[in-house]
Write a structure and sequence with these properties.
Helices cover about 25% and strands about 30% of the residues. It is α+β, with helices and mostly antiparallel strands. The longest helix is centred in the middle third of the chain and has 12 residues. The protein is globular, with a radius of gyration of 13 Å.
Length: about 90
């Protein structure tokens, strides 16, 4: 059985809003859950992989469709551990 995919449409939103909205939506999900983000800001091509890397998520695929829409499929990771505190 495949996992359900939560869908987030950020069409019309410009950087950094698509990533901020995706991060907010991702907080509602459990590790291993899938989030599909669809938007038309070309910046998503660069921002999405960087955000996934930094946040500990996996970018499973990124495709471009009609009308300049960019679809990203992200699997929620365990999250990054907090850096050690100096002292």
């Amino acid at each position: 059985m495949s996992k359900p995919i939560r869908r987030l449409d950020v069409t019309g939103a410009l950087c950094p809003l698509p990533i901020l909205l995706a991060a907010r939506e991702m907080r509602k999900l459990q590790p291993g859950d899938l989030l599909e983000v669809v938007g038309d800001d070309p910046g998503i091509r660069e921002d999405m992989p960087v955000w996934c890397e930094r946040a500990g998520h996996r970018l499973l695929e990124m495709t471009e469709g009609e009308y300049g829409r960019i679809r990203s499929l992200v699997e929620k990771g365990e999250g990054r551990p907090a850096p050690p505190r100096p002292g």
